[in-house]
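Record format v2
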Amino acid sequence: MSKLEVTPEHIYQERRRFIGHSSLWIAAAGLGGWLPQQVFGKPNPAYAVDDPSRPLTSEKLATSYNNFYEFSLEKDGPKDLVDKWTVKSPWTVEVTGLVEQKKTYKLEELMEMAGPTEERVYRFRCVEAWSMVVPWTGFELSKLIAKLKPKSTAKYVAFTSHANPNDFPNIKKMPYYPWPYTEGLTMAEAQHPLAMIATGLYGKPLPKQNGAPLRLVVPWKYGFKSIKSIVKIEFTDQEPKTLWNQLAPKEYGFYANVNPEVDHPRWSQATERVLDGKIFPTRIKTLKFNGYEKEVSSLYAGIDLKKFY
Ligand code: MTE
């Protein structure tokens, strides 16, 4: 990877400003449907990573070094295997459980309910100790939740990924995995302003290998919580079962908050390898809650994070 493939943030932001103008132009020309709105969400300056030691990851790397186990266990596998998967249109998401607006929605309907999309630059830290900094386009999950009107008895939100074995080769190859991929958050976590549903990346619709057409992004938690290609959202009073927790409960807890003080049983979580394309990647100290401590620590007041990992 040459240095040139890593776009410094200021150049990226310049490009975004230009794109922002073109989106206005498209809307003014009467061509603006949900797609331009989805793709050109305006950058929200309140969610930037103002840290010179954390430049934006190159788009090429973020879209070719992936964890999408339904396709492959190899990082470079998903991008080469996605072509055989035609993302259904309209894409639908079943909303069920302890919620008033129970229904199977088209993605467009959910986006309409959540309001305009925006772009946020977040740190993203995988449990495997690599990390990136990427610009997501999408909406705050809390805005959608408010419209869906969960009942007061709902304590958690459970998410399920698309799991058609004809679309995802590894589901057939590894039938002993507890597919579909599932994840969950407490209601308080799901309603936190940082929790996002992403429909785009680098100002473009979400690439298939990154979880098209919609995925969760929870930047203070390990990347495995950020479930891809969502088809079901369920409000429940029981802690949801998650794929990783079922496979290896001692290694992957329900909370999975980024925490340099709690090691994975097989490796340290004190530092992380920055995805910068270098032969000897930069290693930096991992920050508690992935640098979002100020924003989210109150969610865990009085909770023993070693026990609830
Ligand atoms: N969602 C599904 N459905 N399947 C997966 O294998 N991997 C998770 C998460 N969401 C995964 C998933 C893990 S381990 C990580 S680190 C992130 O997606 C990776 O997201 P990225 O490929 O966009 O970087």
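Residues 9-293 form a domain with the Sulfite Oxidase; Chain A, domain 2 fold (CATH 3.90.420.10).
Residues 121 and 134 are 5 Å apart (CA to CA).
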